[in-house]
Design goal:
Elements (H helix, E strand, L loop, with lengths): L5 H29 L3 H6 L6 H9 L5 H24 L7 H15 L13 H18 L13 H25 L11 H35 L1 H14 L11 H21 L2 H18 L1
Helix pairs in contact: 1-3, 1-6, 4-5, 4-6, 5-6, 7-10, 7-11, 8-9, 8-10, 8-11, 9-10, 10-11
């Protein structure tokens, strides 16, 4: 991997820490944060700028404009969600929730901030934005029913693999018919294959399932009901793949990702557990990478 330096490793650890902490003890952290003075709660996430400072300074790419963005955006999100919590205690979805989801989604999908980072380390930008959302929605907004939890249960595996079994024949037949997949085998060792699944699980599937199911589908259900929320979140998930593996609108990818979103959403909503849908999602991506 390009540009993996000691500074980049420290930055990765700093970015993983909030996600791991909230994934292991979200309720306890939220209660603790709730006891802090408002000024501290809102200003604390400005520290999320630290990974950018470390990486950009070590690579001679530091810019004050990017520093200002990463120092001010997290407190702004926290401030908006603090007001959303006060205005919408029933958690049916406030305009500030939707604004922040739109902002974070577009920033990732359209790669607004990636130029701030060295080539090969731009995934750190996405992880930083995940931290911003996690702190805002879980510690400040204290949104319930998200299901962001790193304590995997047997039920997560049962649900996740069941939805994989339902989805796999559909995507195989439709993918072949559309010319989207081309069966072949990538020869990798067992250890490397398992490591690939773990990396996909944590760095691809968890952020996307947290965003589209834990936050978006969760909030939509309170406004439009379970079925409509599943469909809307799945369509938006599909559309987020419009520019993947193509310089133009990749309608085949959008269609298949939308259908995949239905099964990921079903896995999440069964027990409102991000790990369940993440198992389905990671397994689909893993199988695709190995065989298609």
């Amino acid at each position: 991997m390009q540009n993996v330096t000691p500074a980049a490793i420290v930055a990765l650890v700093l970015e993983l820490a909030p996600a791991v902490g909230l994934g292991c003890a979200a309720e306890r952290i939220a209660r603790a944060v709730g006891r802090w003075p408002v000024a501290v709660r809102v200003s604390l996430p400005a520290l999320f700028v630290a990974p950018y400072v470390l990486v950009a300074s070590s690579q001679h790419l530091f810019r004050w404009s990017w520093f200002a963005l990463y120092a001010l955006l997290p407190p702004a999100v926290a401030w908006l969600l603090l007001h959303a919590a006060a205005a919408d205690p029933e958690q049916r979805g406030d305009w500030r929730d939707w604004f922040i989801l739109l902002l974070l989604g577009l920033a990732v999908d359209l790669r607004w901030f990636e130029s701030a980072w060295p080539v090969g380390l731009r995934a750190l930008n996405e992880l930083l934005l995940v931290d911003v959302g996690l702190y805002g929605f879980l510690a400040i907004r204290q949104l319930n029913g998200v299901g962001f939890d790193f304590h995997l249960h047997w039920g997560d595996w049962k649900t996740g693999l069941r939805e994989l079994a339902f989805f796999a024949p559909i995507v195989f037949v439709l993918g072949l018919a559309l010319g989207f997949i081309n069966p072949h085998a990538n020869r990798v060792g067992t250890g490397a294959a398992l490591l690939r699944w773990v990396l996909i699980f944590f760095f691809t599937a968890v952020p996307e399932e947290l965003y589209f199911r834990g936050w978006m589908q969760n909030l939509l259900e309170r406004r439009v009901g379970r079925r409509a929320a599943l469909i809307i979140a799945s369509v938006l998930f599909g559309l987020s793949h419009f520019n993947k593996r193509s310089a133009h609108f990749n309608w085949r990818y959008v269609l298949l990702a939308t259908i995949a979103g239905i099964f990921y959403g079903r896995a999440w909503r069964e027990r409102r557990r991000v790990p369940a849908s993440t198992i389905t999602h990671a397994s689909v991506d893993w199988i695709w990478g190995l065989w298609f």
